[in-house]
Design goal:
Shape of chain A: flat
Number of strands of chain B: 0
Radius of gyration of chain A: 20 Å
Largest sheet of chain A: none
Radius of gyration of chain B: 20 Å
Strand content of chain B: under 5%
Largest sheet of chain B: none
Distance between the termini of chain B: 29 Å
Structural class of chain B: mainly alpha
Helix content of chain B: over 70%
Helix content of chain A: over 70%
Oligomer: heterodimer
Number of domains of chain B: 2
Distance between the termini of chain A: 44 Å
Structural class of chain A: mainly alpha
Number of helices of chain B: 5
Number of domains of chain A: 2
Chain lengths: ~240, ~110
């Protein structure tokens, strides 16, 4: 409660600093992935310029990672862009959660805020809004969080590229498995309900049934089937709960 | 590979999904069924990426055996992830085991 009254007198600069500070633990978690992205980009077939440009312009950690895996596997541009789209659909959820706070801001705020929307900044900002409901400067808090994330991501990409050039055989160290194990750690928290388990099992089975399709198209097929199965199971479960006993 | 086209395409779909709702200031809403379905997107996509990477590590033929270090380390990592739900711990255990299997025991080389 004290926090809430404090923040109502907070200046934009203070909100900005608070945003950067609140995002710090999440930034530390992102550091290894930024470095790994920069390191793996070259061996996956991306030029140094394109690697740096991707971090500057696309700025989407998991999509950038997945793009590398697909590039190394010989996927075409169409499949990589389609996969990026599917992976980034979660941004719709984040922006829907914040839209009431954002819609009164002018476009010169909305455009950069959208460009810098990430899992980490969403987590920091939604957490802040829980405790500072009447925050007059949530957009400055957001900006502080987003710029801290963005700066860190660029620095880590550069560092990774430099390390990759210093140790060209780093790709033989099994870093390709680092991506898989990271994704395993990201999937596990979802596995709390039967529909989620069915979704993941379908994704695995369909991915194995279609892995030989060209351009990694099987990825899209498997993901769409899994979403359909998970969502259907979710509907069935809810229908059963709502049915009169 | 046309890198300019790749980055432009990735930028458009990324910025598009981030900006759609804010740009239209909430006038565009999606129906509740779509928000429910969107919740399944991340685990579906990630699993569809992991499975072939682990079961077909050479991209040529599936290797579904415990002599496949990718598979063994992935199974252990999954168990740790479900048990502790700690991303950093999962990565450390998974990578350590993978390195041990690959270079300690010379599996899958």
């Amino acid at each position: 409660m004290n926090d809430a009254s404090d923040s109502s007198t907070e200046s934009p600069a203070e909100a900005f600093r608070a945003g950067a500070r609140a995002t710090l633990p999440l930034i530390i978690g992102a550091i290894p992935f930024g470095i790994l992205f920069g390191t793996l980009a070259g061996p996956s077939g991306l030029s140094v310029a394109a690697t740096l440009a991707m971090s500057l312009i696309v700025f989407a950690g998991s999509a950038q990672f997945i793009a590398l895996g697909l590039l190394a596997g010989g996927a075409g541009i169409g499949v990589i862009v389609a996969t990026t789209f599917v992976v980034n659909l979660r941004h719709l959820l984040y922006s829907a959660a914040l839209v009431e706070r954002v819609k009164s801001l002018p476009q010169r705020w909305r455009v950069p805020m959208a460009f810098w929307l990430t899992d980490e900044t969403f987590a920091a900002v939604s957490n802040r809004l829980l405790t500072h409901e009447r925050d007059p400067n949530p957009h400055w808090f957001y900006l502080g969080s987003a710029l801290a994330m963005y700066t860190n991501w660029q620095l880590c990409t550069w560092l990774g590229v430099a390390l990759g050039e210093l140790f060209p055989d780093m790709t033989n160290w099994g870093l390709d498995f680092a991506m898989s194990v990271t994704f395993i750690g990201m999937v596990a928290p979802y596995l709390r309900s039967r529909p989620m388990w069915l979704c993941v099992i379908t994704a695995a089975a369909m991915a194995m049934a279609t892995w030989q399709l060209p351009h990694k198209l099987g990825l899209i097929v498997a993901a769409l089937c899994a979403i359909a199965v998970g969502y259907s199971a979710h509907r069935l479960e809810r229908a059963r709960l709502e049915a009169p006993l | 590979m046309n890198e300019l086209a790749l980055i432009t395409g990735m930028f458009l779909v990324t910025f598009g999904t981030r900006y759609l709702l804010w740009g239209t200031a909430g006038r565009f809403r999606f129906p509740p069924w779509m928000s429910d379905a969107l919740g399944f997107v991340p685990p579906a996509v990630l699993t569809a990426i992991i499975t072939p990477a682990v079961l077909v590590p050479d991209g040529q033929a599936p290797d579904i055996s415990l002599a496949n270090p990718y598979l063994l380390a992935a199974l252990v990592a999954l168990a740790v992830a479900l048990w502790r739900r700690n991303l950093m711990l999962t990565i450390i255990v998974g990578m350590t085991l993978f390195m041990l299997l690959r270079w300690g025991l010379g599996l899958g080389g």
